[in-house]
Each structure stands twice: as structure tokens, then as C-alpha cells.
Design goal:
By secondary structure, this protein is an alpha+beta fold. It has 7 helices and 8 strands; from the N terminus they run H-E-E-E-H-H-H-H-E-H-E-E-E-E-H. The strands form 3 sheets. The protein has a 3-stranded antiparallel β-sheet. A 3-stranded antiparallel β-sheet has the order 4-5-8, with helices on one face. It has a two-stranded antiparallel ribbon with strand order 6-7.
Amino acid sequence: MSKSTNVSVSMSPSCARAWRRLERSFTGDDEIFRSRDHALKVAGRDSKWLPAIAGTVEFRVRRYRGPDGSPRYLLFEDTGICMPREKASRGLKAFVASMACEQAYRPAAAHAAVFSREPVSPAAVKDAIESCAAPLTALAEDASLRRLNGEIVGTESTPTLFMEADGVYCRLQRTKAMKQANAPKWAQVRDAKAYEGKDPDNANRCRNPLVYAAVEDGVTFADRLGLATMYWTGSCGT
């Protein structure tokens, strides 16, 4: 991508898409204002600070109000840069979430702050993980409902299905609000594995393993584990 006759910048496809959205935001607010649905009235301008991987971007955008009185930011809706209440760019969230998979929240927050040049709290790391996981969680919930309704059935069969389950208690780093609400200090991470037996070529490996882990009560965990194991036809012994 070239920005002038003197400078040529090579970017990854994801960075190039982000740059195009940012370019669109430079002039897009005025274009959107002229072509908007006139039922939307301008209610003012707001400043939006968006921490990103390379630093913090400040936007001055028009705030609109629709017939129902709810605020809308058409620039963000059009460019997809962020949602009105997002506290960090999606790229920064994905970066933080990936780092948190390899280390604790506090070191991940400290390392992310080096790139973004903004303080990142452990709670922000947790929010980033939940935000990145939300689409996958929605897909899993949809698949569970479809299995319950008989739309999805198992396609694999095995004479015996082996299952193992365990759990470990972890101490929670509660926020001030959680402490005031007397939230639990501990949570149990439950995990289970289903498999068709040991690999004949390697006794340390399982054949077709399926792993499910979650922080939830025992009844919910058992129900969802049963749905997860519907990958098999259900005609096998357990």
C-alpha cells in the first residue's frame, strides 16, 4: 500500500483492512451526514479514544438520535472500527486474548501496555477474552439447541466410548464490584474427555478425543457434556 510518492508501506492483509477502515473514518463522517436517513437527528459530537496495538486513536464523531431516542454513531456502524461502548480495538483485544492463553492476566496486561502505550488492566484482559470468545460461544449454544431438536445427529460409532472427568478449584481475582457483591472467592474448572480408546500405535494417545472444559455448575456441565458427546451415534456402550 502506498501513501505518497516517497513512502511505500507493506502491510499484512489484516493491517491493510484496518488501515482502510481508518482512512474511511477521515472523511466518512461528513459523507454519512449528507446521505443519512433524515429521521436521524444530530445530537452533538463526542470524543472517542480507542486504544489499539500501535497506540491510541481519538475520534470526534457525530452522535445521532433516532425516533426512539437511542444514540447511534453512524461512522462506527459504517466502518466497523468499533462499537460505541468498546474500550479497545478488536485487534488489541485479539492480541491480548492470545497472550493470555500463554500467561496470567497481569503479565499479559503489562506486555500489551508496551505496544498500546496505554495502561491495560487484568480486568480488561478478561473482557477481551470474553469478547473474542462470544462468537464461538454463540455457535456452541446454537449447535446445542440443534442437537436437542434432533437437527444434528452423531455420525460416528464405536463399540465403547470412554469418558474421564475431573475438576480443580482456582482462586479468583475479584474486582472491587465483585467483592462488594460478595461474589465467590473460588471457582471450579470442570473438564472431561471422551475418546474411543487408546491408539494402538501409541499407548499415550487417545483415539478421536473430544475435550470439554467450563466454569459452571455440575448439572449444566453434565448436560453440555452429554450434548458434546453426541458426535457419536449413541449406540455405543460407555
